[in-house]
Amino acid sequence: MELGLIGLGKMGGNMRERIRRAGHTVVGYDRNPDLADVSSLKDLVAALPAPRVVWVMVPAGGPTQDTVDELGELLEPGDIVVDGGNSRWTDDEKHGAELAAKGIGFVDCGVSGGVWGLQNGYALMYGGKDEDIARVQPIFDALKPEGEFGAVHAGKIGAGHFAKMVHNGIEYAMMQAYAEGWELLEAVDSVTDVREVFRSWQEGTVIRSWLLDLAVNALDADEHLDKLKGYAADSGEGRWTVEAAIDNAVPLPAITASLFARFASRQDDSPQMKMIAALRNQFGGHAVENK
Protein backbone atom coordinates (compact mmCIF):
# COMPACT_ATOMS: atom_id res chain seq x y z
CA MET A 1 0.00 0.00 0.00
CA GLU A 2 1.08 3.60 -0.61
CA LEU A 3 0.52 6.22 2.09
CA GLY A 4 1.12 9.93 2.45
CA LEU A 5 2.29 10.94 5.93
CA ILE A 6 2.34 14.57 7.07
CA GLY A 7 4.37 15.39 10.18
CA LEU A 8 7.62 13.50 10.77
CA GLY A 9 8.48 14.47 14.33
CA LYS A 10 9.08 12.11 17.25
CA MET A 11 5.96 10.05 16.57
CA GLY A 12 5.51 10.56 12.84
CA GLY A 13 9.09 9.79 11.92
CA ASN A 14 9.08 6.49 13.80
CA MET A 15 5.67 5.61 12.38
CA ARG A 16 7.00 6.14 8.85
CA GLU A 17 9.86 3.75 9.60
CA ARG A 18 7.59 1.07 11.12
CA ILE A 19 5.19 1.24 8.15
CA ARG A 20 8.07 0.93 5.70
CA ARG A 21 9.47 -2.05 7.58
CA ALA A 22 6.09 -3.73 7.02
CA GLY A 23 6.59 -3.42 3.26
CA HIS A 24 4.47 -0.37 2.48
CA THR A 25 5.50 2.77 0.60
CA VAL A 26 5.39 6.02 2.58
CA VAL A 27 5.74 9.48 1.07
CA GLY A 28 6.43 11.85 3.95
CA TYR A 29 6.18 15.62 4.25
CA ASP A 30 7.44 17.81 7.07
CA ARG A 31 8.18 21.51 7.34
CA ASN A 32 11.74 20.46 8.13
CA PRO A 33 13.19 19.64 4.69
CA ASP A 34 15.81 17.38 6.25
CA LEU A 35 13.02 14.99 7.28
CA ALA A 36 10.76 15.24 4.23
CA ASP A 37 10.54 13.10 1.10
CA VAL A 38 8.76 15.86 -0.84
CA SER A 39 8.83 19.65 -0.62
CA SER A 40 5.09 20.42 -0.30
CA LEU A 41 1.66 18.94 0.33
CA LYS A 42 0.94 19.41 -3.37
CA ASP A 43 3.96 17.27 -4.25
CA LEU A 44 2.90 14.65 -1.69
CA VAL A 45 -0.57 14.34 -3.21
CA ALA A 46 0.90 14.21 -6.73
CA ALA A 47 3.23 11.38 -5.71
CA LEU A 48 0.38 9.09 -4.57
CA PRO A 49 -1.81 7.02 -6.88
CA ALA A 50 -5.57 7.53 -6.59
CA PRO A 51 -7.50 6.71 -4.51
CA ARG A 52 -5.15 8.16 -1.93
CA VAL A 53 -4.78 7.76 1.83
CA VAL A 54 -3.06 10.65 3.63
CA TRP A 55 -2.24 10.40 7.35
CA VAL A 56 -1.84 13.65 9.32
CA MET A 57 0.45 13.75 12.39
CA VAL A 58 0.62 17.45 13.30
CA PRO A 59 -0.30 19.34 16.50
CA ALA A 60 -4.00 19.57 17.36
CA GLY A 61 -5.97 22.72 16.74
CA GLY A 62 -4.86 25.28 14.17
CA PRO A 63 -2.10 23.21 12.52
CA THR A 64 -4.45 20.26 11.99
CA GLN A 65 -7.24 22.52 10.73
CA ASP A 66 -4.90 24.24 8.26
CA THR A 67 -3.62 20.89 7.00
CA VAL A 68 -7.12 19.45 6.58
CA ASP A 69 -8.21 22.62 4.77
CA GLU A 70 -5.29 22.39 2.33
CA LEU A 71 -5.83 18.68 1.74
CA GLY A 72 -9.49 19.39 1.07
CA GLU A 73 -8.41 21.51 -1.89
CA LEU A 74 -5.77 19.08 -3.16
CA LEU A 75 -7.42 15.67 -2.78
CA GLU A 76 -10.15 14.15 -4.93
CA PRO A 77 -13.41 12.30 -4.25
CA GLY A 78 -12.63 8.79 -3.02
CA ASP A 79 -9.47 9.81 -1.17
CA ILE A 80 -9.22 9.47 2.63
CA VAL A 81 -7.65 11.65 5.32
CA VAL A 82 -6.59 10.06 8.63
CA ASP A 83 -5.97 12.38 11.59
CA GLY A 84 -3.57 10.53 13.87
CA GLY A 85 -2.71 13.50 16.09
CA ASN A 86 -4.27 14.35 19.45
CA SER A 87 -7.24 16.30 18.11
CA ARG A 88 -10.36 16.92 20.15
CA TRP A 89 -13.16 14.60 19.07
CA THR A 90 -15.46 17.54 18.29
CA ASP A 91 -12.90 18.75 15.74
CA ASP A 92 -13.07 15.32 14.09
CA GLU A 93 -16.80 15.69 13.57
CA LYS A 94 -16.21 19.08 11.94
CA HIS A 95 -13.40 17.82 9.72
CA GLY A 96 -15.38 14.75 8.71
CA ALA A 97 -18.33 16.89 7.61
CA GLU A 98 -16.12 19.34 5.73
CA LEU A 99 -14.35 16.61 3.79
CA ALA A 100 -17.51 14.56 3.20
CA ALA A 101 -18.98 17.54 1.35
CA LYS A 102 -16.12 17.08 -1.14
CA GLY A 103 -16.45 13.31 -1.36
CA ILE A 104 -13.35 12.72 0.75
CA GLY A 105 -13.41 10.18 3.58
CA PHE A 106 -12.16 10.89 7.09
CA VAL A 107 -10.87 8.62 9.86
CA ASP A 108 -9.72 9.78 13.30
CA CYS A 109 -7.11 7.67 15.04
CA GLY A 110 -5.82 7.99 18.58
CA VAL A 111 -2.23 6.74 18.71
CA SER A 112 -0.42 5.66 21.87
CA GLY A 113 3.11 4.37 22.10
CA GLY A 114 5.35 7.41 22.32
CA VAL A 115 9.03 7.04 21.54
CA TRP A 116 8.79 3.27 22.10
CA GLY A 117 6.28 2.68 19.32
CA LEU A 118 8.80 1.91 16.59
CA GLN A 119 10.04 -1.07 18.58
CA ASN A 120 6.87 -2.18 20.39
CA GLY A 121 4.10 -1.03 18.07
CA TYR A 122 1.40 1.57 18.61
CA ALA A 123 -1.95 1.10 20.32
CA LEU A 124 -4.56 2.43 17.90
CA MET A 125 -8.12 3.60 18.50
CA TYR A 126 -9.90 4.68 15.32
CA GLY A 127 -13.29 6.01 14.33
CA GLY A 128 -15.03 6.28 10.98
CA LYS A 129 -17.10 4.45 8.39
CA ASP A 130 -16.49 0.73 7.92
CA GLU A 131 -15.47 1.17 4.28
CA ASP A 132 -12.93 3.87 5.12
CA ILE A 133 -11.48 1.82 7.97
CA ALA A 134 -11.10 -1.16 5.62
CA ARG A 135 -9.06 0.97 3.20
CA VAL A 136 -6.65 2.05 5.93
CA GLN A 137 -6.53 -1.37 7.67
CA PRO A 138 -3.17 -2.47 6.18
CA ILE A 139 -1.54 0.59 7.78
CA PHE A 140 -3.26 -0.06 11.10
CA ASP A 141 -1.99 -3.63 10.95
CA ALA A 142 1.56 -2.40 10.27
CA LEU A 143 1.54 0.03 13.19
CA LYS A 144 -0.17 -2.02 15.90
CA PRO A 145 1.71 -4.28 18.32
CA GLU A 146 2.09 -7.94 17.42
CA GLY A 147 -0.69 -10.20 18.64
CA GLU A 148 -4.45 -10.11 18.91
CA PHE A 149 -4.86 -6.83 20.74
CA GLY A 150 -3.66 -3.25 20.42
CA ALA A 151 -6.10 -1.83 17.87
CA VAL A 152 -9.84 -1.17 17.85
CA HIS A 153 -12.48 0.34 15.59
CA ALA A 154 -14.02 2.33 18.42
CA GLY A 155 -17.05 3.66 16.55
CA LYS A 156 -18.01 6.50 14.28
CA ILE A 157 -16.00 9.64 13.51
CA GLY A 158 -14.67 11.12 16.75
CA ALA A 159 -14.74 7.82 18.67
CA GLY A 160 -11.04 7.15 18.17
CA HIS A 161 -9.87 10.43 19.65
CA PHE A 162 -12.50 10.25 22.40
CA ALA A 163 -11.16 6.81 23.40
CA LYS A 164 -7.57 8.11 23.31
CA MET A 165 -8.61 11.10 25.42
CA VAL A 166 -10.04 8.80 28.10
CA HIS A 167 -6.89 6.66 27.88
CA ASN A 168 -4.80 9.74 28.59
CA GLY A 169 -7.07 10.75 31.47
CA ILE A 170 -6.50 7.34 33.06
CA GLU A 171 -2.78 7.76 32.41
CA TYR A 172 -2.87 11.05 34.36
CA ALA A 173 -4.41 9.34 37.38
CA MET A 174 -2.05 6.34 37.30
CA MET A 175 1.04 8.55 37.10
CA GLN A 176 -0.27 10.68 39.95
CA ALA A 177 -0.73 7.61 42.17
CA TYR A 178 2.84 6.44 41.55
CA ALA A 179 4.13 9.97 42.18
CA GLU A 180 2.26 10.32 45.47
CA GLY A 181 3.47 6.94 46.70
CA TRP A 182 7.05 7.80 45.72
CA GLU A 183 6.93 11.11 47.60
CA LEU A 184 5.57 9.46 50.75
CA LEU A 185 8.28 6.80 50.67
CA GLU A 186 10.93 9.50 50.24
CA ALA A 187 9.50 11.46 53.18
CA VAL A 188 10.03 8.85 55.91
CA ASP A 189 13.32 7.95 57.60
CA SER A 190 12.57 4.25 57.91
CA VAL A 191 12.63 3.54 54.16
CA THR A 192 16.25 3.81 53.09
CA ASP A 193 16.06 2.68 49.44
CA VAL A 194 12.95 3.97 47.71
CA ARG A 195 14.22 3.08 44.24
CA GLU A 196 14.57 -0.58 45.18
CA VAL A 197 11.11 -0.59 46.74
CA PHE A 198 9.74 0.55 43.38
CA ARG A 199 11.84 -2.09 41.64
CA SER A 200 10.50 -4.81 43.95
CA TRP A 201 6.97 -3.99 42.79
CA GLN A 202 7.77 -4.88 39.18
CA GLU A 203 7.11 -8.58 39.77
CA GLY A 204 4.24 -10.29 41.55
CA THR A 205 2.26 -7.21 42.64
CA VAL A 206 -1.10 -5.91 41.49
CA ILE A 207 0.34 -2.48 40.67
CA ARG A 208 3.01 -3.69 38.23
CA SER A 209 2.75 -1.93 34.88
CA TRP A 210 4.80 -0.40 32.09
CA LEU A 211 4.52 2.96 33.86
CA LEU A 212 6.07 1.38 36.95
CA ASP A 213 8.90 0.03 34.79
CA LEU A 214 9.46 3.51 33.39
CA ALA A 215 9.46 4.98 36.91
CA VAL A 216 12.28 2.57 37.82
CA ASN A 217 14.14 3.60 34.65
CA ALA A 218 13.84 7.24 35.71
CA LEU A 219 15.06 6.49 39.23
CA ASP A 220 18.00 4.52 37.85
CA ALA A 221 19.01 7.61 35.92
CA ASP A 222 18.46 10.04 38.84
CA GLU A 223 17.79 8.18 42.09
CA HIS A 224 16.03 11.01 43.93
CA LEU A 225 15.06 13.03 40.83
CA ASP A 226 17.24 15.84 42.14
CA LYS A 227 18.04 17.03 38.63
CA LEU A 228 14.40 17.72 37.74
CA LYS A 229 12.23 20.67 38.48
CA GLY A 230 8.81 19.76 39.92
CA TYR A 231 6.83 20.98 36.91
CA ALA A 232 4.66 18.90 34.59
CA ALA A 233 2.68 20.23 31.64
CA ASP A 234 -0.72 18.93 30.58
CA SER A 235 -1.34 18.08 26.94
CA GLY A 236 -4.96 19.24 26.93
CA GLU A 237 -6.54 15.79 26.86
CA GLY A 238 -6.78 15.66 30.64
CA ARG A 239 -8.81 18.86 30.56
CA TRP A 240 -10.99 17.52 27.75
CA THR A 241 -11.64 14.33 29.73
CA VAL A 242 -12.82 16.30 32.75
CA GLU A 243 -14.96 18.56 30.54
CA ALA A 244 -16.56 15.51 28.90
CA ALA A 245 -17.24 14.06 32.34
CA ILE A 246 -19.04 17.24 33.35
CA ASP A 247 -21.04 17.25 30.11
CA ASN A 248 -22.13 13.64 30.71
CA ALA A 249 -22.51 13.84 34.52
CA VAL A 250 -19.91 11.10 35.03
CA PRO A 251 -17.87 11.39 38.27
CA LEU A 252 -14.10 11.29 37.67
CA PRO A 253 -12.57 12.22 41.04
CA ALA A 254 -9.18 10.56 40.52
CA ILE A 255 -8.60 11.90 37.00
CA THR A 256 -9.83 15.36 37.97
CA ALA A 257 -7.56 15.47 41.02
CA SER A 258 -4.56 14.41 38.93
CA LEU A 259 -5.21 17.25 36.50
CA PHE A 260 -5.43 19.76 39.34
CA ALA A 261 -2.19 18.38 40.78
CA ARG A 262 -0.45 19.34 37.56
CA PHE A 263 -1.79 22.85 37.93
CA ALA A 264 -0.30 22.88 41.43
CA SER A 265 3.10 22.04 39.94
CA ARG A 266 3.18 25.48 38.37
CA GLN A 267 3.04 27.10 41.79
CA ASP A 268 5.67 25.10 43.72
CA ASP A 269 8.62 22.84 43.04
CA SER A 270 6.46 19.78 43.66
CA PRO A 271 8.28 16.48 44.39
CA GLN A 272 5.33 14.57 42.92
CA MET A 273 5.64 16.49 39.67
CA LYS A 274 9.27 15.46 39.37
CA MET A 275 8.06 11.88 39.01
CA ILE A 276 5.29 12.89 36.58
CA ALA A 277 7.82 14.81 34.50
CA ALA A 278 10.23 11.87 34.57
CA LEU A 279 7.54 9.41 33.48
CA ARG A 280 6.36 11.64 30.62
CA ASN A 281 9.96 11.92 29.44
CA GLN A 282 10.45 8.15 29.67
CA PHE A 283 7.41 7.04 27.68
CA GLY A 284 6.92 9.92 25.31
CA GLY A 285 10.18 11.81 25.10
CA HIS A 286 8.40 14.90 26.47
CA ALA A 287 10.67 17.73 27.49
CA VAL A 288 11.60 18.20 31.14
CA GLU A 289 12.75 21.31 32.91
CA ASN A 290 16.07 20.84 34.66
CA LYS A 291 17.26 22.94 37.57
Automatic annotation (TrEMBL):
* Matches recorded under InterPro entries: 6-PGluconate_DH-like_C_sf, 6DGDH_YqeC, 6PGD_dom2, 6PGDH_C, 6PGDH_NADP-bd, 6PGdom_BS, NAD(P)-bd_dom_sf, Pgluconate_DH
PROSITE patterns from the entry? 6PGD (PS00461)
Keywords, in A-Z order: Gluconate utilization, Oxidoreductase
Coiled-coil-forming residues are: none
Q: Which residues form the 6-phosphogluconate dehydrogenase C-terminal domain?
A: 160-287
Give the Gene Ontology MF terms in alphabetical order: oxidoreductase activity
Enzyme class, spelled out: oxidoreductase
Q: What is its EC number?
A: 1.1.1.343
Query: Which PANTHER family does this one have?
Result: 6-PHOSPHOGLUCONATE DEHYDROGENASE
Q: Which family does it belong to?
A: Belongs to the 6-phosphogluconate dehydrogenase family.
Q: What is this protein called?
A: Phosphogluconate dehydrogenase (NAD(+)-dependent, decarboxylating)
**Organism name:** Streptacidiphilus cavernicola
